[in-house]
C-alpha cells in the first residue's frame, strides 16, 4: 500500500512538473496544447479527444474548446503588457550639461607696439599664455574653461605717456566675440626700473570653451600685483611656466594665468624691434617646491627601507643564534 501511495505521489508530482513545464514553455503556442484543459472537460464528457478531429458532430464540445482558447488568450494578454512598461521607463533620462574641451597647450606669439606716428617700438612682448577659469554649469557642477591667447591676436595699446605703457591683445573667440588681455607697466626713472603692475582679461563665454553658460556676460579678471621688476633698457625673460592668480572684478579670486616662454621689453625706443640685454628670471625667485618635496620623500623612503632591512637582519641573526 505504502509503495503504491509513494508511486502515486511520484506520479502526481511528475504530472505536476510536466504540466508546469508545458505551461511555461509555450506561452503563445498554448492554443494548440489542450492537455491542461481535459481535467475541466472530463466532468462533462470523456469524448474530448475526438472533438479535435470531428468538430461538426458535437456542438457543446466546440463551445468548450472555444472557452479554452479564450482562457489561453487572456493569459497571453496578461503577460504582454510588461515590455511596453519597461520601454516607457527607459525614456525618462536626464541630459547632462556639456563639458568644456580638454586643455590644449597655448602656442607662443610675439607682438610689437610702436609709439604713435612712429616707427620706433615701445613694447615688445612674447609669450604662450593660457587662462584657466572655473565656471558653474546648469547642473551645479563646476567646470574649468581654458582660453589660450592665439599667436595671431592683434596688438593695440597706449605708449604716449612717459611713465606708464600698456599693451592689449585682441582676438575673436569661437562665437566671433572679442576677447582681450592687457598688460600695464610702470617705469621708475629714479631707480631706473620698470615692472608689470596689472593684467586685465575680458573673456566672453562662448559655446566652445564655456558650454552651458554661452552668451553669459563677459568675465572681467584681473591680476593686480607688481611682477617682473626689470632694469630699464633691458628685457625680462622667463622660459618656465608661471602661474599668476586672478581676481574677478568684485575682488574675489577666480582662475589663473599660466604663462611660459615669457619675454618682454617695455619703454623701448628703437626701430630694430629686437630684444636687447636680457634679465632672466632668477631660479631663487620662485623656488621649485615639487622637486624638493619629491627629493625629501625619496630620501625618507631610502632611510625607512634601510632601517627595516637592518631590523630584519638583526632579528634573523638573533633567531639564528637561538636555533644553534
Ligand atoms: C510598471 O512600472 C512601474 C514603475 O515603473 C512598476 O511599479 C510596475 O510594477 C510596472 N508594471 C509591470 C507590469 O511591470
Ligand atoms: C598721428 O598722425 C595723424 C595723421 O596722420 C594725426 O592726426 C595725429 O594727431 C598724430 N598723432 C600724434 C600723437 O602725433
Ligand atoms: C542647484 O543648486 C540649487 C541651490 O543650491 C538647487 O536649488 C537646484 O535644485 C540645484 N540644481 C540641480 C540640477 O542640482
Ligand atoms: C587666427 O588663427 C585662427 C586659426 O589658428 C583662425 O581661425 C583665425 O581666423 C585667425 N584670426 C585672424 C584675425 O587672422
Ligand atoms: C565668425 O565669422 C566668420 C567670418 O566672419 C564666419 O565664417 C563664422 O561662421 C563665424 N562664426 C560664428 C560662430 O558666428
Ligand atoms: C622710485 O624708486 C625710488 C627708489 O627706490 C622710490 O623712492 C620712489 O618712491 C619710487 N617712485 C615711485 C613712483 O614708485
Ligand atoms: C548664443 O547666441 C547665439 C546668437 O545670439 C545663438 O545662436 C546661440 O544659440 C546662443 N547660445 C546659447 C547657448 O544660448
Ligand atoms: C584680489 O583681491 C584681493 C582683495 O582686494 C587682494 O588682496 C588680492 O591681492 C587680489 N589678488 C589678485 C591676484 O589680484
Ligand atoms: C626716442 O629716442 C629719440 C632719440 O633717439 C628721442 O628723440 C625720442 O624722444 C625718444 N622717444 C621716447 C618715447 O622716449
UniProtKB/TrEMBL annotation:
Coiled coil start-end: none
Domain spans labelled Lysosome-associated membrane glycoprotein 2-like luminal: 115-248
Keywords in alphabetical order: Cell projection, Cytoplasmic vesicle, Endosome, Glycoprotein, Membrane, Signal, Synapse, Transmembrane, Transmembrane helix
Record-linked CDD domains: TM_EGFR-like (cd12087)
Bilayer-crossing regions: 289-311
Gene Ontology CC terms: late endosome membrane; lysosomal membrane; plasma membrane
Keyword Ligase: no
PROSITE patterns: LAMP_3
Protein name, entry field: Lysosome-associated membrane glycoprotein 5
Organism, as annotated: Ignelater luminosus (Cucubano)
Lineage, highest ranks first: Eukaryota, Metazoa, Ecdysozoa, Arthropoda, Hexapoda
Amino acid at each position: 500500500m505504502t509503495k503504491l501511495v509513494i508511486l502515486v505521489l511520484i506520479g502526481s508530482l511528475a504530472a505536476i512538473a510536466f504540466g508546469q513545464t508545458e505551461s511555461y514553455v509555450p506561452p503563445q503556442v498554448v492554443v494548440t496544447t489542450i492537455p491542461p484543459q481535459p481535467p475541466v472537460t472530463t466532468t462533462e464528457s470523456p469524448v474530448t479527444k475526438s472533438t479535435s478531429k470531428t468538430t461538426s458532430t458535437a456542438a457543446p464540445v466546440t463551445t468548450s474548446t472555444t472557452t479554452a482558447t479564450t482562457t489561453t488568450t487572456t493569459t497571453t494578454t496578461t503577460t504582454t503588457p510588461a515590455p511596453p512598461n519597461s520601454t516607457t521607463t527607459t525614456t525618462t533620462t536626464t541630459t547632462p550639461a556639456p563639458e568644456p574641451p580638454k586643455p590644449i597647450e597655448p602656442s607662443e606669439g610675439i607682438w610689437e607696439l610702436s609709439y604713435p606716428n612712429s616707427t620706433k617700438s615701445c613694447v615688445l612682448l612674447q609669450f604662450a599664455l593660457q587662462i584657466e577659469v572655473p565656471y558653474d554649469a546648469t547642473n551645479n557642477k563646476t567646470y574649468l574653461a581654458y582660453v589660450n591667447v592665439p599667436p595671431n591676436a592683434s596688438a593695440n595699446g597706449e605708449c604716449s605717456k612717459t611713465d606708464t605703457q600698456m599693451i592689449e591683445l585682441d582676438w575673436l573667440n569661437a562665437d566671433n566675440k572679442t576677447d582681450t588681455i592687457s598688460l600695464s607697466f610702470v617705469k621708475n626713472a629714479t631707480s631706473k626700473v620698470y615692472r608689470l603692475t596689472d593684467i586685465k582679461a575680458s573673456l566672453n563665454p562662448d559655446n566652445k570653451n564655456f558650454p552651458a553658460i554661452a552668451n553669459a556676460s563677459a568675465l572681467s579678471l584681473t591680476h593686480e600685483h607688481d611682477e617682473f621688476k626689470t632694469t630699464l633698457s633691458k628685457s625680462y625673460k622667463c622660459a618656465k611656466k608661471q602661474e599668476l592668480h586672478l581676481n574677478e572684478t568684485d575682488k574675489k579670486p577666480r582662475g589663473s594665468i599660466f604663462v611660459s616662454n615669457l619675454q618682454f621689453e617695455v619703454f623701448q625706443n628703437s626701430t630694430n624691434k629686437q630684444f636687447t640685454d636680457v634679465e632672466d628670471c632668477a631660479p631663487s625667485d620662485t623656488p621649485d617646491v615639487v622637486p624638493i618635496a619629491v627629493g625629501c620623500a625619496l630620501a625618507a623612503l631610502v632611510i625607512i627601507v634601510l632601517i627595516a632591512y637592518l631590523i630584519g637582519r638583526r632579528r634573523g641573526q638573533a633567531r639564528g643564534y637561538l636555533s644553534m
